[in-house]
Design brief:
Length: 201
């Protein structure tokens, strides 16, 4: 039994929303760190966790400082929580799904996932972030293209199709605009240059 959670103690359970928790690796790190600090995780998924802890020994401020040590933090405020949910939905859509139709229907996917119109989501996102939602989506697409190029399993035409570009030329132009180099130059350099998904801008 976790030593900070004695059986008869007056424990507190609550759900927290977490910034920069964008991949399964983040989940594993979070679980390990919380366990080390006597915080029980009752449920966890990208961007949020339901935790149980002893409030006499560990307050939310301490929980937040633990998160900050691993590059995360508790999100306060409903709209800020929506922004983080948007980020996670975009990452799921572009980096974790192999369903081409989901990529094509990115706006519909976000609307279905978050229950708000695309216009509302874009407005909330721009209110709290330094870039637009559309640019955030493009940045993620560029990082996914880098990953697919690094894997060297698909042609550029196949990558363009998967990533919802109407042509290789359109993909190439956007890639060059966002990175300053062409896809072929990126491939020739032989250096994997992917950015962390929580540090795209």
């Amino acid at each position: 039994m976790n030593k900070l959670l004695p059986k008869n103690d007056n424990l507190q359970t609550e759900t927290i929303y977490i910034k920069n928790m964008v991949c399964n690796c983040c989940v594993r790190v979070l679980c390990a760190v919380f366990e080390e600090n006597g915080i029980r995780i009752d449920q966890v998924k990208l961007g949020m966790a339901t935790i149980t802890y002893n409030p006499d020994q560990l307050g939310l401020e301490k929980v937040n400082s633990i998160l900050q040590e691993i590059g995360m933090e508790i999100i306060i405020g409903h709209e800020r929580q929506i922004v983080e949910q948007i980020k996670i939905a975009v990452i799921e859509l572009i980096h974790q799904m192999n369903n081409v139709d989901s990529i094509v229907q990115k706006s519909e996917y976000l609307v279905d996932k978050l229950g708000l119109s695309y216009q509302q989501l874009s407005k909330i996102f721009s209110k709290y972030e330094d870039i637009t939602l559309e640019r955030f989506i493009i940045l993620n697409k560029v990082e996914r293209i880098k990953e697919l190029v690094d894997q060297d399993e698909l042609t550029l035409s196949e990558i363009a199709f998967i990533m919802d570009y109407s042509s290789v030329q359109y993909l190439s132009n956007q890639f060059h605009k966002m990175t300053g180099i062409s896809v072929s130059e990126y491939k020739k350099c032989g250096v994997k240059n992917k950015k962390s998904l929580n540090a795209l801008y």
